[in-house]
Design a protein that fits this description.
- It is globular and about 85 Å long.
- The protein is about 30% helix and about 20% strand.
- It has a nine-stranded mixed beta sheet. The protein has a seven-stranded mixed beta sheet with strand order 2-3-5-4-7-9-8, sandwiched between helices. Strands 23-18-22-19-25 form a five-stranded antiparallel beta sheet, covered by helices on one side.
Amino acid sequence: MKMLRRLVVPVWAIAAVLSIALPEPAASQSAYFFPGQPEFDPAIPSPADFLGYDIGTHHTRHDQIVSYVRELARLSDRVTYQEIGRTYGERVMPVITITSPEHHARLEEIRLEHIRVADPAQPAPSSDRPVIVHLGYGVHGNEASSSEAAMLTAYWLTASRSPEVGRYLAEGVFHIEPSLNPDGRDRHTHWVNMHKGTPFVSDPLDREHNEGWPGGRTNHYWYDLNRDWLPLENPESRARIDFHHRWLPNVVTDYHEMGTNSTYYFEPSEPEASWNPLIPERMYTEITLDFAEYYAKNLDAIGSLYFTKEQYDNSYPGYGSTYPKFLGGYAITFEQAGSRGHLQESTRQGDLSFAFTIRNQVRTGLGAVQASVDLREKLHDYQREFFTSALQEADEFPVKAYVFGDRHDASKNRLFLDLLLRHRLSVYEVPQQVTYDGVTFEPGSAWVVPTSQPKYRMVRSIFERTSEYADSTFYDASTWTVSLAYGVPEAEIRTTGFERGDPVTRVPAPEGLGEVPQSRYAYLLDWSDYFAPRALYHLLRNGAQAEVAFQPFSLDTNAGIYDYPRGSISIPVQNQSLMPEELYRLVLEAEQIAGVPIQSSTTGYSAEGVDLGSSNLRPITEPRVLTMIGEGISSGEAGQIWHMLDTKYDFPITKADVLDIGRVDFADYDVVVLVSGSYSFLNGEPLEDLKRWVRSGGTLVAQRTAASWAANNGFTPNSSLEESEEEDETEPVRRDWADAGDIRGAQAIGGSIWETDLDLTHPLAFGYQRRTLPVWRDHSIFFEPSRNPYSTVAQLTEDPHLSGYISEPNLERLRGSPSALVDQLGRGSVVLLLDNTNFRGYWHGTNRLLLNAIFFGRHFSVPAAP
C-alpha cells in the first residue's frame, strides 16, 4: 500500500524564500517580484506595506484590493481611480488609470483623439499618440494569482523611479482592472483563507485546495464571465464592454490559471485552426509573435517554464482575449499553473507556492507594458488598418445587410436591439414593408443592420451562419450565431439597393402601456411577448386568478378586434378574491413591470374561436418551483435558470442542496426542475417519493443529462434513449496514436445550432408563432421519438443544420431526433428538454419552453395513442 505524504511548510519558510535578507518587508517583496532592485518612491506603500502581510502568504479580499488602488490614486499624481459598475453582489468594479501627470491633464482629449481610429471617414489620428493598454485580471474568481499581480503591477507603474518606467508613462495610458469577477474572487478568497493552515499544507487532498460547490470560478449567478463578452448577460460584462468601447485599447491582457501540474502558457495559441477567421492574419502571424518575445524574455530571466502553440483558441468572440480583437486591439491569454491555495504539490514544479504563481503573472505583465510601448506605432497602424479594411472586406462580402424583427414579440426585439447597440453596431429602422427569404418585415417591428460599417466583423459574428472549419476539434463552441439564439425572424439582404430609415440610437420604450381601461368583465394578455410570463407571475403572486387558453380566439377589446393565439391569458373580473379596483391596479402594475400591454374587454363572446367561458380556458395558479443544486450538479446550467427567473421574470426558485434531500417534501412544490448532473442521491426512498409526487400531479422538468436520468429511472413510459448502434463487425482501422484526440474530437457535438419542427398546438409551445425553432446542442444524448404520437413536441427536421461543425455520422443521427418530449406518469407530467433552453443566458429563443413547463405543466396530459 502506497504511503500518503503530508508535507507542511512553515509560513516563515515561505517568507524566507521570498526575501533576500533585506531589512524591510517591502524591500524583500520588491526583490522577489522585481529582480534587479529598482528604486521605488518611499511615499508610495507597496501592497505588503498597505495590507500588513507579504503578498503570497494570504489571499487578498476584493475590498482590500479596492482600498489599495484607491490609496495609490490618493497619493500619486500618476493615478486616477474610477468605478465602472457594480456586480450582482454589490461589489464595486474599479479601474485605475496610470500615466504621466501631463497625460492626466488632457486624458479626455487623448481618448477622443484615439477613438477617431474607428471611423475611417475621419482623418487618421497621430501615430505619435500614447498607446492605450488595458491590464485585466481575474475573470475567473478562483484563479487568484492575477489580482495579486495587479496590485504589484500598479505599484511598479506608480512608485518606480526608473527612467524606463518614466518612458512608459510618457508614451502610454495604462488602465488596470484588478478583478474582473469580484463576487467569485471573494467566494474563493474566503474558502482558501478559511482553510489555510499555519504551517501551509501542500497535500492536494487538503480541504484548502478543494473548493466546495460551486467554487469561485463563476460570478454570483454561476456564470463564466469569460464567455460573456458577446452575450452581455451580466452587469460586469456590460460595464466592461462599455469601458472598452469608450477607449478602444490597443492592448488587452486576460489573466488565468490552469491545472497545478502544468507550467505557464502565453500566446501564440494552437496555429491557424484556433484563429478567428474574421481577424486579420497579421494579428496572429506578426503582432502576437512580437509580444511573445517579451514574455519569454521576462520568464527566462527568472527561470520559469512555459509553453506556447499547443492549445487554447481565439475563435469565440465572447472571450476576454478575443473580443478586444474585434475592436482592433491585440488581446492575450495568460495561463499560470494554479496553486489553488497557498502551497500545493506539483508534479512539474515541486511545491508550487501562491507567491511563485503571482511572480510569473507580474513578469508577463511587465512584458506586456514594455512591448506595448516599444510597438506603439505598429499597434496604432494595425488598429487603423483594422477598421479601414473592414469596409473593404464588407464591399466584397455578398451579404449587404441583415434584416430582423418579430411583429409578435416587441420585448425580444428590444432585447436584441439593446445587445446590438451595446456592441456599438449601426442599426436602422425598416421604413416600409419588405419581404426577404419568404419572411415579411413590417415598419415599427423590424430593423436592418448593414454589413458595410467599421464593425463589420462583429456584425458577421452576430448574424452569420457557419459550416466550414479549418479543424474539427474545438476548445469551446463551434458557432455562436446570436440572431438564431434570440429566435427573432431574420434574413440576409444580398442587394445594395435596400432601403433603410432613421438610425437607431437607443432602444425604443414599450408602447401601449397604461392605456387599458378598467373592465367589469376580463383582462387579456397575449402570451407571445417574451416578458408576458413576468406580467402573469406578478398577477398570480398578488392574488389574481387567471386562465390559459388552449385554443385561439378573437375578441373585441379596447385595442379593437384582437387575435389571441393559444396560450393567451384571461383574467376574469368576477370570481376574484380581489375587488375590481384592486384587480385593475394590479393589471396596471403588471403592465409597467413587464413592459407588456394588457387589453380589456366588456364581453366574453368571441368574434371567432372559443369564448372566454369555454372549457378550453383552464385555471392556472402561482407555481412553486424547486431545483436541486450542489456537488455533482452543473452549476452553470443551474445558475442560468436561476438567473433567468430572478432577473428577467422576478420569479423566485427554491435551490435545495443535494445534501438536504432528506428534508425535501416534494408536496410543497408544483414543479421540480433538474439540470445536468449526477442524481445518485435520488435513490431508494427519495426516488420513490419523487415518483409518487409526479403520479399525484407534479411536473418534473429534466434538462440535458437529467433527461437521460429520468428515462433510465422509470419516469417516462413512452420515451426512451436511442438504442446503441450495433457494433461494426468490420476489421478495425489502424491509426497513429497521436491522432486519437483529434479523431475523438471530430466526433463530438461541441456546440452547434439546429432547426426543430415545433408542434404549435402543444401547451409546451404556447406563445410561439413559427413552426421552426433553432436550438443549441452540445451533447450526444439521443432519444427515440416518443411512442405516443402526440408527445414529441420539438423534433429536429430532416435538414436540420443551421450553424456549427458536425460530423457526417452525427448529422445522420440528428435528422428527425427529438429535442423536447412530454410524457405522463400517473396524473403528473414529465418534460424532457434535451437541449439547454438557456445556454449562457442568451438563448432567449428557447426560454419559453421551460417557462411553459413551469406555468402550464399541470395541463400537459398526454392523449392516448390512436
